[in-house]
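note to self: dont lose this again. the chain is below, predicted strucutre after it. 282 aa total, dont forget to put it in the shared folder this time
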Amino acid sequence: MIIITGQTATGKTELAQELVKNIPPPGGGELINFDSRQIYKYLDIITGKDIPKNKIWLYDIVSPDQYFSSFDFVKQVIPIIEDIKKRGKTPILVGGTYLYLKHLLYGIDDDNSPPDFKLRNELNNKTVKELQNILTKLDVQSINRLNNSDVNNPRRLIRKIEIAKSPTKTVLNKTVFKKSVPEIFIGLRYKDKSKLREAIEKRVEERLKNGAINEVKKILEMGYKESDPGMKTIGYQQIIKYLNKKLTKKKAIEDWINKEVQYAKRQLTFMKKDKNIKWQEI
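---
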């Protein structure tokens, strides 16, 4: 498995497409998207979807009004990775949503386990000591990670028990991906912060020329709203404000660029904590 991640506007997809060509035999690799915005249908120009000759898995899989979590991503991507490997090919994951990647490689986020109201009712009458004993038997590592306040908080203990007993957590954590690090795990980042801003400014300008404003108009005409999960994407939010006369065009573009730069900085902050990423500066 190959992974290419990094900051926005660093050319991740272009690099992934080059790798696809060079993996023997010809066509020996298949691309899988892990960009949380490119999973949405109709969000094409502003999210910078590259539609290459080679198929990219997990493009256009949900509507803009649907919520799609890292839990959903892991559930969708595991069978795709397994299928590609069974066919003797190499999965190449490409994207910048580190949260998706983190949960695939190192385990699913506890908070994504669904609530079990029947179990909660059963546990509500238990003492703190009884809850501590139950959690210790189920997941001793989980209780050891709690601080003094949480370990004596019945609501926190009940939630941890709920997570430990969740069937979805059990299934997802059995995957080999949780314990393995890909042979090739590349991260792209800008050496010079000013180059990052320049690249983002250029990209925003290109997307405006390619019809970004009309794209937003069409999506709104389809009945999707500003508050829909997909529409909370950088770029769409600013153009919607411009269309609603809440921002001038100039201010909307400035805000779009600034938000992209801020996002790129946050990406790097999270990704730098992962010691398995081999960084390439551009």
